[in-house]
Design brief:
Elements lengths: L13 H13 L5 E6 L2 E10 L4 H5 L12 E8 L8 H15 L4 E4 L18 H6 L3 E7 L2 E7 L7
Parallel strand pairs: 3-4
Antiparallel strand pairs: 1-2, 2-3, 4-6, 5-6
């Protein structure tokens, strides 16, 4: 919920965030995808229309590149016990498929791009190399380690 809010409300208490997230789901809005392994949740990816993420509008790093309608990927979480097994990459693939199924034609993200390996706890945006493998292209870089990447999606053919 952090990126969906701006100002003081972005630092809401966990119970408030839980209530707000539940409200999104209750209005038939999918705030993200959950990855399962053997029936247990092991990961999460937050994505949705860029306009739904209020904090992105004012971010010096993640502010809009242009006025094209895009969906944004703003957060990953992988259970520490499931890390190193490609969970984040599978979540990214699922997010691309889901966005395409929703008619999205442009998907945007704000990964970390460092030469040295970062601690997994600080990789909630994902690594640029993962987005590169998924076909995203860099479109802006406003900070040395924080590119803005995009992937154009073709709508699925009607069946």
């Amino acid at each position: 919920m952090y990126y969906r809010r701006s100002g003081a409300s972005s630092n809401a208490a966990p119970q408030e965030n839980k209530k707000a997230l539940k409200s999104l789901v209750g209005r038939d809005r999918v705030p993200g995808l959950i990855g399962y392994q053997d029936g247990s949740p092991v990961g999460w990816i937050s994505l949705g229309p860029r306009k739904d993420y209020a904090k992105l509008q004012r971010s010096p790093v993640m502010k809009p590149v242009d006025d094209k309608p895009a969906w944004s990927i703003v957060c990953f979480f992988v259970d520490p016990r499931a890390r190193g097994r490609g969970v984040a990459e599978q979540l990214l693939k699922a997010a691309i498929d889901y966005a395409r199924s929703q008619g999205v034609t442009l998907l945007e993200a704000y990964p970390i791009d460092k030469k040295e390996r970062s601690h997994p706890d600080f990789m909630w945006f994902g690594a640029k190399s993962m987005y590169d493998r998924a076909g995203f292209k860099e479109v802006a870089r406003r900070k040395d380690t924080r590119p803005v990447v995009r992937k154009s999606l073709r709508p699925r053919p009607a069946s």
